[in-house]
């Protein structure tokens, strides 16, 4: 059974029988048929669907947002903002896709040579629960704009969100089968990747699952984009605006109850300002209001699963045992639901558990360093390379240091965030390929060279 459970109350919301092999085959056949027609549908018509999807998302915001909050525990205001962002992404691609898909004339010896962007086919999207709408829809907009179809295998704890998204496409008048949600477990993914009706895979989730999917897609020689885990550094140099940094730092760590791949996870602070930063950071963290995520004013909801809360707690305990100072929190909240106290660990060194591993929840790790060079060394001392934040008022130095940081994105004096206009992705064990922007759309196209003779000799 696939169970929808409210992590704030432990109540079972719904149970679904997983799709049978026959149902999966039927849906894949439908997706393949729909995509063939879609690929030949004029771009303007395709983009009109994207605009309708954006409209339906906005109209349905107050149905969709509570569903996400109920299934995975994020504060309702954050779920509402997530739905809005999905709509923005669909509008962005509706406006930008004609430019992104325009032929690129490349001078050569031919009378005409150009690159054209053809769709690949049906893309399998294997997605996580942490932004149950955004993760899916940030991939879906460019995938569909380019003329592909999409089959979603969503995380097993958000089946209602998966079905709600299928319904959004239905209400927007999408061709039957263009966007299909499969209710299946992770064990079915390998078979889906091998299926000849699947042309490519986009995966967002943990690094171990990404490794496994990469191996399967590699075996099947299918294009893949992998958006995996992260342990983003948040570097505060001595010349930074420390108060502004602390304010953004708290949001960067605790939004989405700390369950974001690009959440700041390691705060690397130059010794000269470490006490000031720590004080300001703790002061603001104390103001977080933990509780029922459906209630207005709650700023930290439940974690998505009890097992994840247990994992985070084990990381916190191990780090304290290794010598870190616990400044606040450090315990699950008593009572029902997967709540965890906002936690701050100080005097952490790079070899301690919370600095080495991804901490996917509301626990901040503070590391003190002597200077900017050490800050960059510590920032890079991780297998991950997703986002990074750098705080300094010396922008020349910021530009130089940002080239030394091993990450898919460096945000100077700001919050690391995904934005439809900017490519998003990682290096090292955070994955490869890019989503969003023009690159995100080109990932799932056949960039075809068309050469027309006779050659000019
Ligand atoms: P997860 O356990 O890897 O699950 C993600 C998806 O993959 C789910 O649909 C899951 O299905 C499926 N899955 C799990 N193991 C699989 C396997 N061996 N083979 C095929 N599919 C498999 O990740 P999560 O706990 O949901 O999400 C948290 C992780 O995602 C964190 O590491 C976070 O950093 C990362 N993340 C990365 C980004 C990014 O853009 N880089 C964004 C968000 C999250 P079931 O639910 O059925 O198990």
Automatic annotation (TrEMBL):
Keywords noted in UniProt: NADP, Oxidoreductase
Entry annotated with the keyword Acyltransferase: no
Coiled-coil parts of chain: none
Alphabetical list of PROSITE patterns matching this protein: ALDEHYDE_DEHYDR_CYS (PS00070)
Disulfide bond among keywords: no
Stored Gene3D superfamilies: Aldehyde Dehydrogenase, Chain A, domain 1, Aldehyde Dehydrogenase, Chain A, domain 2
InterPro entries attached to this UniProt entry: Ald_DH/histidinol_DH, Ald_DH_C, Ald_DH_CS_CYS, Ald_DH_N, Aldehyde_DH_dom, ALDH_GabD1-like, GABD/Sad-like
Domain Aldehyde dehydrogenase: 2-450
Pfam families for the chain: Aldedh (PF00171)
Single GO molecular function: aldehyde dehydrogenase [NAD(P)+] activity
Similarity comment: family membership: Belongs to the aldehyde dehydrogenase family.
Record protein name field: NAD-dependent succinate-semialdehyde dehydrogenase
Species: Hylemonella gracilis
